[in-house]
């Protein structure tokens, strides 16, 4: 979260960076060394983050952390290419806990019997006949990491003392701050509450800041501007954490991570009786953002931000918490949480008031509190719906009835909603199944979600409100039952109240080691690994910018399909730092970006003019580039680009494959057809016992390379030559297109790429448009230009994995043997052809997957839609083709009431199969691989176990599958695709 | 002279740069276009200067300039690789005068007869048999430049209007200035005399500045510091130029170029009678510095600087000029020039006084003034000795006697010296030859030059003082004779008084055009020419420096041979901007720089450790690198480097080839011997009619590439990789040495060289030591480091062409046929071996030149001396070997009293000759080439004409020679050297 930490807030702090803990010249820190040696870095862009998360954990722990703590500490780090297994493996050695996965002792593996160190069982990946050391013997390659505490780690090369907190900072007297920032911003840091209140009286509109995790986002993405900011991180009165008679007093500036620690301590000391609320809050905090955010975000910040999807506010409300508020005249008032939230981000707090603390009351006997949250993913995600519920059950006339209840939902309205009618209905009643129907009906009234409610997914979210309550009901019922005061739940329902716990991640990768020469066949640590774990590896963004470098921001289309009426820069050009706006008319060479293959044939300009560097007349998608603004800083460029006023006349847009098919909107010359046998004849001949038809939709996917698209362009020989450093998978394409766009010979354009932070196909052809746009500005102004896309712009403009639509008709026998497949396949090309035709072809080539189909006909088309042009993505159409195949296989299995694996096994390719694109399969291993894997994984047993689990658990299910695939190489050049 | 113009002085000016007048994208200015198309740029480093000198001339001339003006305007520009012929040819088209060289009309050359456009005669370079258009016909290649005025020039590509002086500057009111500069410097620009006087009263120590041509040099090279500077360029009272009754009044701030124009006008108006002084001063100004300096330097600046070698001060003194001086209280006093100069740079001017003007009196009838100057070269050089002499002859009693005489010499003492005794002796005497002996004796007393007089060359300079007077005597005698008042000079003496006039330079280059394909065989304009004439071509110094770049300065040995006792940086490290000092102990890899060939064999470190990056213990020459200082600016780095205090213990040094031979000081393993026939036997056999012996010394030579040694080094991947851009002839050598010095693999070191501003061998191996030194600083600090040698440092440290000593013994017949040569050849390798052995070998291979010598023995050795290591230089030893050969050929000719050409012709190689290194000559063309050239140049006639001229002219001589050479390729690899 470094990007959210204002520089001001670092006053007096000691900052440790990945470069500071170790480097290649002086020696790697053990954390760095482990990650490199365990192959835990690939593109390396995310690597410093992982290293520092782990380092921070080790530095903050008094004893070696557990594996769970390690995984938790990495929850805020994303990796897109290495995969998490080797990273977690690497850091596993720093854990104090042991695990069978890592305990293969040398004696065990030395007794001649091949023990796989990852499973502890006889090794499947090892060829037993070769054990006795033939030169070519296959050795197990799973590296054994012995558990170790972090001071036992090798660290041979690390010869520096661990960094200490500088004594000069420790001895330093903290002073109140008043700093002046860019654009007239002022930053105050009072050291006492009365200083804060005095500031607040001078600047009632001042924003109070603790972690900046909300204000930072508002400033960055919502153009919020705060002139005066008061950092309250050093006001001790706001940092109270006290156990009091009526509950816990929690200062508003207390960080969420501190609150977690404090709650754990309180729960441990007081036991569960009084701490049901504490426990609910603690459990909710586990899924509240990630470690890095919890380390800085504060209790009061979350409350006052009053986000409609705050995970905590429904809990404060339902637990009956109260807020203490102080005004600038030192008057303190108290309000209950329930009354505090007035409207969308509007709270009961005046400009001259400050939230002082929260008082969380103890729970009474038979008072139960439970938290709920449903999000797309558990970690680091915001809720779709969340809730806090509390019930107090008391004995009245021999009956245990609800004496008090509080049900509050978040994420369903502008403020957390209390289910008042439901509460009233429940009070005085005995909690039993009989109440549920009426409670559900009332809940629907209490928590209405209009069809067009912000956030969408209305049906799902409505059902979540009910199911949360149902789970709460089951929970309380179960709790009462444990005290003998209620009937027990049936076993199938128990799964609804068991809270989710994920075991520590485990995984192994098995491969053969065949030494050939010095390195071939060995799992060598790649050459950049050491540079990546130390942060020394330079990416485009790290390249020092030459003097006079300008920074670029794009003017993007806001319409999916529209005619450009006018482009007005009269305001933009007076924006601070503005240095130029470049449009299609400014392109010195050709404004066209065409499909790469056509360009390759004719070196000069694209034949199919289906793409433009800058939209000249008509825009065909949201996010299409209309112009580029360059300015002295990235921020100024963005601000100026925002001020370019484009007027459009809207045109009808095509926004799905279905719409494209309906409108006949296809890219020209993209119809493809492949066939084998005679599908028509087969269907007509009555040999098929069954014929099924269906549709499969395969969605798109953002590449999400960690390093966004970026290029640094600079003129050489005063602009008669253009050089660039680009994050691209195809520097030669950059050279070619930029030369074309600038009207320069190829010899005068140089593109270099040292390394990139992920690409996955997204930097194969699409990266060039940003380099080309930047080069126009650089060429015209004869100044260096750097373009780095913000993540949101990158996602908006660069296209994705192609979404597909497959329509199938399959004929087969009752035994499950496939006889005929008639397939129509469409992909969503977006607004230019780019690589879509090749992707379509590849999907078609993979669309029989590994199944023998005597009669097959596949026809494909690339749909033109008003989306950013979709492009290459890992698999290049293959996964989509296979997924469609796996879908109709499952459809067959359902039809025949057999397991999909049986159907698959029955139809697998075998030696002599001629694929529908003409290849004769020889030495086909698929049957033996299938059988070996089925046996080694105990698939049949596992399938049975899954079935048993599913029939025993009503609210939680498991799945299992075996999916065979093959994958052609060489993309779609047919004769090479074998 | 841009380097001497303080930024302050440009206030209110319009600056036109080479980039401003035209560029590749918008079109070239005609001046640029001509220079490129006439092949007038090679390395291109000097090219912008030539363009701007020409442009300035055209812009300042109301009508097209003459060829003489063009050459004059280029006198301040140096070129080291293109040669001046194509440059002058290129600009010749802008001249208004015509010349037979450029008048070949199309009709003449189109009549089928091959007329060479450069000579107007039937073309010798054209094969007559091929005239009628065979495909392979040889075409005359001498391009015809038709004369043209500069607005008739093609300039097709030039589509910009000529730049105008900006109206806003023209309309702008000039204001007095008070500017604050770096290091507390203050710059005043008063607009009136009283403002100046007031400033002078406030700051008596203030320096008055006009052209900064003296102060700029003092500041740059002599560490002079002036806190307060007053620019008097805008004080009208100091710019007087008036014809008055008693003479000319010349304001002290008048520029020398203005004075030239004014004198020309006055002389034209007044005729020669009153203007003998004016004429002498005008003639002296022609050789006073160059146009650029005369454009800025002032009359008063030159007077007050009081340089002992001022070209004008002896003239002011001898002409009887007076100086008007004003003090801060407005009192004006007058002093005669003779009394103004008090001592070394000490004049009769108090701190509160300002030189106002000079009054140059008219000359009377029979009053003659003459200027004298002898320098190493005529243009842009300072005098060895100069002088001003005036005599007034009057009739007394029927005799024309000297009534007044003034003889003043410059360059012979701290102040211009008046020859008082000689003057007294002459007064009242009649000027005739009889006076000369006594006058010479008195002159020797008047102008004593001690043996150790500053400036050296005492004997030569002494004789100059006498010969100047002799010339003056002849001049006056001749002048009186023209009036019939004296005997005439004999014809042989006339040559002493004819003033030197050089005709406009002419030259042609003839070559064959044989078209092969599109470009081969054609005189194509090279690809960078357009970039070079527009100044758009980037050299190392133009490469934008990355942020945080440090600048380097070297700590150099001040001793030729000494032990380093201590290196003290205690003062240096507190110097402003200091960032580090790196010495031998700081080198991360090997501190050795060895000969390139040994390195090539063993890729890692040099085998012969005969050079160090930084001297570790002992220095072996003045200028050897001891350390490198890096700082934020180049100036700060130099200042800090000056403060590094190195203590030495002196050791005996070897400072010449002779000393080395005497001491047996040779580089190890460098003795070489080549022989053919039997020299001893031949000398012993009495077949030689004559045997001569002798020695030839061949001096060294500074490379003087226009672009000094420079490298920009920067770390990549945080210093795990080192990249550099270097001005070098061998980037691969930079890569290899820097990798070695830093201990990095070759793959982690990159050196790029786009173009260099001349090298000539001086950037073949020696450039690497500066790159290596800079790379140590860059690597250790992980910051970019730029090193650019100042010219003086470059000349001091980089080594030169090898000086040689050849000792020969030649036996030959009376007919002139060479029978035997015994040769010992030594070169001065300096303090490391570098390429000296290869240079020696190459000299040996060329030391028979083109002469057939039946018996030859040559032995060679490389001398170790305490000079900077000498290195490759155009010709690589070849010229030295040939020069030695030509010397003994001349010795033979003298011995035989025949012309050298006869001896050469007699001994030329011919088909079947076996060279002494074993090559059999086949198809040897030397005889036919020799004969053809001798005929086409009318050599025999020309030789006769030279002889006649020389016998007719006692004081001026001509020479003529034909020198044949051959040159082996592939340096010294014998089998390829043919």
From TrEMBL, chains A, B:
GO terms assigned for molecular function: 2 iron, 2 sulfur cluster binding; FAD binding; iron ion binding; oxidoreductase activity
Protein residues bound to FAD: 208-215, 288, 298-302, 311, 355, 373
SMART domains: Ald_Xan_dh_C, CO_deh_flav_C
Pfam families to which the protein is assigned, alphabetical: Ald_Xan_dh_C, CO_deh_flav_C, FAD_binding_5, Fer2_2, MoCoBD_1
Cofactor or coenzyme needed: [2Fe-2S] cluster; Mo-molybdopterin; FAD
Cofactor notes: Binds 1 Mo-molybdopterin (Mo-MPT) cofactor per subunit. Binds 2 [2Fe-2S] clusters.
Binding positions for [2Fe-2S] cluster 1 per the UniProt entry: 3
List of residues binding Mo-molybdopterin: 729, 760, 874
Keyword Zinc among UniProt keywords: no
Binding site residues for [2Fe-2S] cluster 2: 43, 46, 79, 81
Binding site for substrate: 764, 876, 972
Domain FAD-binding PCMH-type: 180-365
Entry keywords, A to Z: 2Fe-2S, FAD, Flavoprotein, Iron, Iron-sulfur, Metal-binding, Molybdenum, Oxidoreductase
Sequence similarity: Belongs to the xanthine dehydrogenase family.
Name recorded for this polypeptide: FAD-binding PCMH-type domain-containing protein
């Amino acid at each position: 979260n470094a990007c959210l930490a204002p520089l001001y807030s670092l006053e007096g702090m000691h900052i440790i960076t990945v470069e500071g803990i170790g480097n290649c010249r002086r020696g790697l820190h053990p954390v760095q060394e482990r990650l490199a040696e365990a192959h835990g870095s690939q593109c390396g862009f995310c690597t410093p983050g992982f290293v520092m998360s782990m380092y921070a954990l080790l530095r903050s722990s008094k004893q070696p952390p557990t594996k769970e703590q390690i995984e938790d500490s990495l929850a805020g780090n994303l990796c897109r290419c290495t995969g998490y297994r080797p990273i977690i493996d690497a850091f596993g050695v720093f854990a104090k806990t042991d695990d069978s996965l890592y305990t293969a002792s040398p004696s065990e593996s030395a007794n001649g019997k091949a023990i796989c160190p990852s499973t502890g069982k006889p090794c499947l990946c090892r060829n037993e006949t070769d054990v006795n050391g033939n030169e070519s013997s296959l050795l197990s390659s799973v590296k054994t990491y012995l558990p170790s505490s972090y001071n036992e780690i090798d660290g041979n090369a690390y010869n520096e003392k661990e960094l200490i907190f500088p004594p000069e900072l420790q001895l330093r007297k903290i002073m109140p701050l008043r700093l002046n920032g860019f654009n007239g911003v002022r930053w105050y840091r009072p050291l006492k509450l009365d200083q804060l209140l005095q500031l607040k009286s001078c600047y009632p509109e001042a924003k109070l800041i603790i972690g900046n995790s909300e204000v930072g986002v508002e400033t960055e993405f919502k153009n919020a501007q705060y002139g005066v900011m008061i950092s309250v991180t050093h006001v001790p009165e706001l940092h109270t954490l006290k156990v009091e008679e009526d509950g816990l007093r929690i200062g508003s500036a207390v960080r969420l991570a501190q609150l977690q620690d404090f709650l754990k301590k309180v729960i441990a000391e007081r036991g569960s009786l009084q701490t049901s609320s504490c426990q609910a809050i603690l459990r909710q905090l586990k899924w509240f953002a990630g470690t890095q955010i919890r380390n800085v975000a504060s209790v009061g910040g979350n409350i006052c931000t009053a986000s409609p999807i705050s995970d905590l506010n429904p809990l404060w409300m339902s637990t009956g918490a109260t807020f203490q508020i102080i005004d600038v005249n030192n008057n303190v008032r108290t309000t209950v949480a329930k009354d505090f939230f007035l409207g969308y981000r509007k709270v009961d707090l005046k400009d001259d008031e400050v939230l002082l603390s929260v008082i969380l009351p103890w729970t009474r006997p038979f008072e139960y509190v439970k938290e709920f949250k449903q999000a797309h993913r558990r970690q680091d995600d915001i809720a779709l719906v969340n809730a806090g519920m509390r019930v107090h059950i008391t004995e009245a006339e021999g009956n245990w009835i609800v004496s008090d209840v509080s049900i509050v939902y978040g994420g369903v309205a502008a403020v957390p909603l209390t289910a008042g009618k439901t509460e009233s209905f429940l009070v005085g009643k005995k909690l039993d199944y009989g109440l549920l129907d009426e409670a559900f009906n009332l809940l629907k009234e209490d928590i209405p979600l209009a069809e067009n409610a912000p956030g969408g997914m209305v049906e799902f979210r409505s059902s979540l409100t009910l199911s949360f309550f149902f789970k709460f009901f089951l929970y309380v019922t179960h709790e009462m039952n444990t005290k003998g005061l209620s009937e027990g739940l049936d076993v199938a329902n128990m799964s609804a109240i068991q809270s989710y716990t994920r075991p520590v991640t485990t995984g192994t990768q098995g491969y053969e080691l065949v030494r050939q020469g010095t390195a071939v066949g060995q799992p060598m640590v790649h050459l950049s690994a050491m540079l990546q774990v130390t942060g020394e590896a330079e990416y485009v963004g790290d390249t020092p910018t030459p003097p006079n470098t300008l920074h670029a921001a794009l003017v993007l289309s806001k319409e999916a399909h529209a005619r450009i009426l006018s482009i007005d820069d009269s305001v933009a050009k007076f924006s601070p730092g503005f240095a130029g706006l470049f449009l299609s008319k400014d392109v010195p060479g050709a404004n066209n970006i065409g499909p790469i293959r056509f360009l390759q044939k004719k070196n000069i300009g694209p034949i199919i003019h289906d793409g433009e560097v800058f939209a000249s007349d008509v825009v065909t998608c949201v996010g299409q580039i209309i112009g580029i603004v360059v300015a002295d800083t990235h921020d100024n460029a963005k601000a100026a680009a925002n001020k370019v006023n484009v007027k459009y006349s809207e045109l009808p847009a095509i926004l799905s494959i279905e719409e494209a098919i309906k409108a006949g909107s296809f890219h020209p010359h993209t119809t493809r057809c492949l066939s084998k046998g005679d599908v028509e004849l087969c269907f007509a001949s009555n040999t098929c016992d069954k014929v099924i038809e269906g549709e499969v939709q395969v969605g798109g996917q953002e590449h999400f390379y960690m390093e966004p698209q970026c290029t640094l362009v600079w003129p050489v020989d005063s602009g008669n030559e253009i050089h660039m450093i680009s994050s691209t998978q195809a520097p030669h394409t950059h050279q070619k297109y930029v030369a074309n766009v600038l009207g320069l010979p190829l010899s005068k354009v140089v593109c270099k790429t040292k390394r990139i932070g992920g690409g996955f196909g997204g930097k194969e052809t699409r990266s060039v448009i940003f380099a080309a746009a930047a080069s126009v500005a650089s060429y015209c102004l004869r100044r260096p230009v750097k373009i780095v896309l913000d993540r949101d712009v990158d996602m908006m403009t660069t296209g994705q994995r192609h979404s597909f639509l497959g329509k199938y008709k399959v004929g087969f026998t009752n035994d499950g043997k496939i006889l005929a497949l008639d397939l129509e396949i469409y992909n969503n090309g977006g607004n230019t052809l780019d690589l879509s035709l090749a992707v379509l072809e590849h999907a078609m080539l993979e669309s029989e997957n590994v199944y023998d189909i005597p009669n097959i006909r596949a026809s494909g088309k690339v749909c033109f839609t008003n989306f950013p042009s979709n492009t290459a993505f890992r698999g290049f159409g293959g996964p989509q083709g296979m997924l469609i195949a796996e879908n109709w296989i499952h459809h067959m299995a359902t039809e025949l009431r057999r397991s999909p694996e049986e159907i698959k096994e029955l139809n697998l390719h075998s030696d002599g199969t001629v694929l529908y694109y003409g290849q004769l399969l020889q030495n086909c291993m698929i049957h033996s691989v299938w059988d070996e894997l089925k046996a080694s994984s105990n698939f049949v047993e596992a399938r049975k176990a899954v079935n048993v689990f599913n029939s025993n658990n009503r609210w939680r299910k498991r799945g299992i599958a075996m999916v065979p695939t093959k994958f052609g190489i060489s993309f779609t050049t047919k004769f090479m695709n074998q």
